[in-house]
Design a protein that fits this description.
heterotrimer; A alpha+beta (163); B alpha+beta (287); C alpha+beta (735); B: 287 residues; alpha+beta; Uridine Diphospho-n-acetylenolpyruvylglucosamine Reductase, domain 3; Enolase-like, domain 1; 3 domains; five-stranded antiparallel beta sheet; 10 helices; 25% strand; C: 735 residues; Aldehyde Oxidoreductase, domain 3; Aldehyde Oxidoreductase, domain 4; 20 helices; 27 strands; 31% helix; globular; binds flavin-adenine dinucleotide; binds FE2/S2 (inorganic) cluster
Chain lengths: 163, 287, 735
């Protein structure tokens, strides 16, 4: 089947089987390798992307759901101002080790910043937001620190990306 | 290899038409796909996929009189964010909060959780105690039938749905009584992202010091989720003394029939189900 | 140090997703590879048949019959790349398939049928030990010191128990993946791995006597923890063989299910430990019998056992010791390297033995541990004196203070007595002391003869050549810090050469927490060599001076390449027969306090707080050192509480993250990390080992806290709710 969708602001058209995974379409068909596969079963969050402005696991999204959808991946985030602040906070707080989980954590961070503008969140709420992202290296502490810092910075993340 | 055949109807009527064209084939109803995509390599290559997630009639939450109607393709996050659900069905919120992650809840639908018919499905025990009705559409007869949720399940991963039948609505009656106690707790293998080893849903009404009525359903401890009616019956009208609680624990232990699997053992599931009941009744006393 | 210099050199590229891991490489014209595996734990292969209905011309099949050197060169060379006649575990590779795509692979696999004749299988460690066959013993070690039998005869009290630890899967977030690219007679191997030279050696053996040459490049690795130490040699062989046969590039990437079921695991242990105690709580003798479940092949078991033996006396002064260790073959997925490498198993045993001593003698556990702890100048049972870089007392002081241990100990005792019945929550506080021998065991380092190389480039930059790989631990950044400090160069002027065996010398594997201490020191020596050549060594100099000197140098020379080979200081000697001498050149130390709660509805152990102090000699990168410690603690908590691998008839039952449970962000404690720096004279700026130590002390601290909470010694991990319920309710709830 042929699917028309928007990825990181660009209209694209791909050929795929109905149950092909968005993850593979991004990585193999579109060369967007920033999105990682850690488990392929929705458990680790390394493959997290935005689909129609909602956070999803790209390993569980079938091609047939992608018609006219708007997908934004880590590879489409780099040029946003908020991304630079996130990157800085992650770097300075030492939130990255092997880095394989990191793009996924960054996507969840963006979602959290967007949804919590103006609210002050406790650690429990931060942790709830990251329930779907597994990191085996860092012990999470420094990621939480980076996120905590970001939450105090009043960062503006748009409601919608590339629309 | 041939590609799998698939359809994505936009209306229930379209669904019916598609169905009648392929009624001789095995079909696979696809909603959010969070269950189906995990095992996608095991799916039969001959099945025709019908993706119902685009059917607008299957989405949304409306209050109709003393009932809440939930479209089967409503996602768990939509339920979580719904003021109607938050205000009127707090037990469902409690349950959904323990489910999966933001990423999954954005995709997973309530119809899928029910249709998957897992004894560990976390929306099922609250829906069972709420005496929810399920509206089912049959493309063969072009009719809608409504059944109590508890009669939907016929075994682990098995339902009483006939071929082609889909769940279209979840209808939850609202209770007029004020001050209803509700309890949901699930015990998994860790705090987040966990499959239920055992869970308990309860709603109850007390007057003075007695329990007027209580409705209980245990998850993951029997082939299908069902009401713990003997336990309910026993507690009804009683004052919750330690002796009563202990007796109730023994009764619920006999009502369930858990198994040993990779996640836990039969004996442990019995133990924690009893503990959950005690935890629930203690919370009820504290109120 | 300038805080800016702590920022990892790879952080930005990883955050933005630009960093390329192996699967991100775009390799043209590649085939994908798959593995056909044994479905039996132990059996003879009687036939392999290929269904005629399938078009076999579409795929390439490789079997053992076509190979002439069919063993993976590790230690014992006992493991074949592909089983030929006999299979020894469920999942053992039998055939390889290369196909144009994944779908074709899956299809082809469905059309292969393998028949077996079952043989007797050791599907548990117990069965293997009971069978008592000499050929199942991969290694046996005996370490004796003093008069063990006598002291047990005369001791006031003898305390003993059996301590058990389970399998553990590494769960590096990037599953195993390697590629092979044929190029004339050469095959280029690239992949996610810790030790390109281990792979190189294995490939040299595999293609011995043929024209094939191999070079190996490590690609940015998404976590490893030991899981990519020995294992990649096997799969690199697989892709190399297929690349040779097909003439096409080959990609082999495991999905999570394959990775969890069929890659190496931490060795489970069963340790019978006995302490001879004086009535005032002094340990006079230790008698320990260590059994490690090695799985079907030896892999690194002999050296894992060596470390288990040398860690078994913990941080205590024990005058009379007998440690008997055995690594035993079973018909289960092979065990291999994993952070701590045998240390966590025996340290758990000794720490919990002290717990049992405390329970028996009714003396608070900390009092017992404190009164038996090593003092500066004491000797280990190997005869090695602990007379330098012994920061444990300082660690203890720090952790007692940060955790307020003594006060909480009393408070929680009272709480459990008076309040827990009300709240339904038991609380516990536990303490552990841990040691990690830095670098290779015994004479390993002298055998490897690690070489590091540095080249001065025009423009006054340096090119750093080591084979030590970045897998998340931050080695590239650490090297830059070490060099930058010495040469006053900014990070940008320090270039780390690709970890390609045709470009870098063999500086040894990235294991045993040795990269900073051993290779970092070589790099510091390389800096000295460069400074000598530039005649800067005896002066204060600035960056400008350095650049000027470099410019001057290149006026008269075209090249400056310096090399340094590692050798232990002369007094560091070890006798592999008697296990006497310096097991390690130095030790890193930690003291740990865990606070836990057990809620009596679910019996879940929750680690609420974790305090630790680590003596690492010198933290080259403070921020990342802390990160290593925190990550190790959480992985250790997983080991102690959550991570249960379920084996049935020798087969791993777990299929993925849904049934192999590791800690999520909602399962972590509040952590407090102190770093102590008691310099090691032979490490760069005093640095010694760090990477593994945080893991080693974590589980015993948690288990100690659990013992406190339930009022008896927890003797095995993982302490899943089923185990806890069994301990509390005196009934069996376990599998
Ligand atoms: C990482 C992860 C974590 C999870 N955590 C939880 C958890 O905590 N608790 C929990 O209960 N579940 C959990 N799940 C399971 C899953 O997310 C839920 O069951 C979800 O609600 C399924 O909805 P879906 O729309 O994705 O279903 P789908 O995968 O689309 O379908 C599931 C099944 O239901 C059938 N079906 C779907 N819609 C209908 C319909 N309208 N009528 C009839 N049949 C239908 C399908 O044919 C299929 O058999 C988890 C899954 C993942 C991957
Ligand atoms: S790869 Fe999608 S959640 Fe792990
Ligand atoms: S940094 Fe390695 S998994 Fe998170």
């Amino acid at each position: 089947m042929n699917i028309d969708l928007t990825v990181n602001g660009k209209p694209v058209s791909v050929e795929a089987e109905p149950l092909d995974r968005l993850l593979d379409i991004l990585r193999d068909k579109l060369g967007l390798t920033g999105t990682k596969e850690g488990c392929g079963e929705g458990e680790c969050g390394a493959c997290t992307v935005f689909m129609n402005n909602k956070l999803v696991n790209s390993c569980l999204v079938p091609a047939m759901h992608l018609h006219n959808s708007n997908i934004v991946t880590i590879d489409g985030m780099r040029d946003f101002d908020f991304f630079k602040l996130i990157s800085k906070a992650y770097e300075e707080n030492g939130a990255v080790q092997c880095g394989f989980c990191t793009p996924g954590f960054v996507m969840t961070t963006i979602n959290l910043l967007r949804n919590s503008s103006g609210k002050s969140l406790g650690d429990e709420e931060i942790k709830e937001a990251f329930a779907g992202n597994i990191c085996r290296c860092t012990g999470y502490d420094k990621i939480i620190k980076a996120v905590r810092q970001l939450l105090t910075m009043n960062i503006r993340v748009p409601e919608r990306f590339y629309e | 290899m041939n590609s799998m055949q698939y359809y994505s109807p936009n209306t229930i009527n379209e669904y019916r038409k598609i169905y009648s064209g392929i009624a001789d084939k095995s079909i696979l109803i696809f909603s959010g796909g969070t269950d189906l995509m995990v095992g996608r390599h095991e799916l039969s290559q001959d099945a025709v996929i019908i993706d119902i997630s685009g059917i607008a009639e299957l989405k949304g939450i409306v209050k109709k009189g003393d009932k809440i109607h939930i479209g089967s393709c409503t996602t768990l996050n939509e339920l979580l964010c719904s003021h109607k659900i938050q205000n009127d069905i707090p037990i469902l919120i409690k349950a959904i909060k323990t489910m999966a992650s933001e990423q999954i809840r954005n995709r997973a639908t309530i119809g899928g959780n029910i249709g998957n018919a897992s004894p560990a499905g976390d929306t099922i025990t609250p829906l069972v105690v709420l005496e929810t009705k399920i509206e089912i559409f049959s493309p063969e007869s072009n009719e809608v039938r409504t059944i109590p949720i508890k009669t939907l399940f016929s075994g682990p991963s098995a339902t009483t749905l006939e071929k082609g039948e889909i769940i279209i609505k979840i209808i939850i009656p609202l209770r007029k009584d004020e001050d209803i106690f509700c309890y949901f707790r699930k015990i998994g293998q860790r705090n987040a992202m966990t499959i239920t080893k055992a869970s308990l849903s309860a709603i109850a009404k007390c007057s003075d010091t007695k329990i007027e009525w209580i409705k209980l359903a245990s998850g993951s401890v029997s082939p299908v989720v069902k009401r713990m009616s003997k336990t309910e019956e026993f507690i009804k009208g009683k004052k919750l003394t330690p002796v009563v609680i202990n007796e109730a624990k023994e009764i619920i232990a006999k009502e369930i029939s858990p198994i040993t699997d990779i996640r836990s053992t039969k004996a442990f599931r019995v133990l924690i189900t009893k503990n959950l009941l005690k935890d629930c009744l203690s919370a009820l006393i504290k109120r | 140090m300038n805080k800016h210099n702590e920022i990892r050199v790879d952080a930005a590229s990883k955050i933005s997703g630009i960093e390329r891991y192996t699967k991100d490489l775009r390799i043209k014209n590649a085939l994908v590879a798959g593995t056909v595996r044994s479905s039996r734990a132990h059996a003879r292969i009687t036939s392999i048949s290929f269904d005629e209905k399938f078009d076999w011309s579409k795929v390439t099949i490789l079997s053992a019959k076509e190979m002439h050197n069919n063993f993976v060169a590790i230690i014992k060379n006992d493991m074949p790349y592909l089983a030929e006649n006999e299979v020894n575990y469920v999942g053992e590779p039998i055939l390889l398939i290369a196909a144009e795509n994944e779908t074709m692979l899956i299809e082809a696999k469905k059309h292969i049928e393998i028949k077996y004749k079952e043989l007797v299988a050791s599907t548990t460690l117990k069965v293997a030990v009971d069978r008592n066959r000499a050929e199942d013993l991969f290694e046996e070690i005996l370490l004796e010191n003093g008069e063990v039998d006598e002291v047990f005869k005369s001791a006031d009290t003898i305390v003993e128990d059996i301590f058990e630890t389970g399998f553990q899967e590494h769960v590096y977030l990037e599953p195993q993946v390697v590629v092979a690219i044929p190029d004339g007679n050469t095959i280029h191997i690239k992949g996610s791995m810790q030790c390109p030279y281990y792979v190189q050696n294995a490939m040299n053996e595999l293609f011995m006597g043929t024209e094939v040459k191999v070079d190996v490049t490590q690609i940015m690795t998404g976590g490893a923890f030991g899981g990519k130490e020995d294992f990649p040699s096997l799969i690199c062989g697989h892709v190399a063989l297929l690349a040779k046969k097909t003439g096409r590039p080959i990609i082999l990437s495991y999905n999570r299910e394959e990775d969890i079921q069929f890659t190496t695991k931490r060795h489970p242990s069963k340790i019978h430990a006995k302490a001879a105690m004086s009535s005032d709580g002094k340990i006079l003798g230790l008698d320990m019998d260590i059994l490690l479940d090695s799985g079907a092949y030896a892999t690194l078991s002999p050296v894992v056992l060596a470390r288990a033996v040398l860690t078994s006396f913990g941080c205590y002064k024990i005058p009379n010791v007998r440690i008997h260790g055995r690594a035993v073959k079973t018909n289960i997925t092979p065990s291999g390297a994993f952070r701590g490498f045998g240390g966590p198993q025996s340290l758990f045993a000794i720490e919990m033995l002290f717990e049992k001593v405390a329970e028996t003698l009714k003396i608070p556990v900390w009092q017992i541990k404190k009164s038996n702890m090593l003092s500066l100048g004491d000797k280990l049972p190997t005869g090695q004196p602990i007379d330098y870089s012994y920061g444990l007392p300082q660690c203890v002081e720090k952790v007692l203070k940060s955790s307020d241990y003594e006060k909480k100990y009393n408070e929680l005792k009272k709480y459990n007595e008076n309040e827990s019945a009300q709240t339904g929550i038991l609380k516990g506080i536990g303490i552990s002391l841990a040691a990690h021998g830095c670098g290779f065991t015994g004479v390993g380092e002298n055998r490897i003869k690690a070489i590091a190389e540095m080249e001065l480039l025009s423009g006054g930059k340096v090119l750093v050549k080591t084979a030590n790989t970045e897998m998340g631990q931050g080695v590239d950044t650490a090297y830059k810090i070490i060099i930058s400090k010495k040469l006053h160069l900014p990070f940008n002027d320090i270039i780390i050469e690709e970890k390609n065996t045709s470009k870098v010398p063999n500086s040894g594997p990235t294991v045993a927490s040795r990269s900073t201490m051993i290779v970092g020191k070589l790099l510091l020596d390389n800096c000295e060599q460069i400074l000598d050549a530039l005649s800067l060594n005896h002066f204060e100099f600035s960056l400008q001076d350095f650049k000027k000197a470099a410019k001057e140098y290149f006026k008269n020379h075209d090249k400056l390449v310096v090399q340094k080979e590692y050798k232990h200081p002369n007094f560091i000697k070890f006798d592999e027969n008697t296990y006497k001498g310096y097991g390690y050149p130095v030790y890193s130390w930690s003291a740990n306090v865990a606070e836990i709660e057990i809620e009596l509805t679910s019996y879940q152990v929750e680690v609420k707080k974790f305090y630790t102090a680590h003596d690492v000699g010198k933290a080259i990168n403070k921020q990342q050192s802390e990160g290593q410690v925190q990550g190790g603690i959480v992985q250790g908590i997983g080991y102690a509480v959550y991570e249960a691998l379920c084996i049935k008839d020798g087969e791993v039952q777990n299929r993925g993250f849904r049934d192999y449970i590791i800690p999520t962000i909602q399962d972590i404690p509040e952590m407090h990390v102190d770093i102590v720096e008691d310099a090691y004279f032979n490490g760069p700026y005093g640095a010694k080992a760090l990477g593994e130590l945080p893991f080693v002390g974590a589980a015993p601290a948690v288990a100690s806290a659990v013992s406190f909470a339930i009022g008896k010694t927890a003797t095995k991990i993982p302490l899943t709710p089923e185990v806890i319920a069994t301990l509390i309710e005196n009934n069996n709830y376990e599998h």
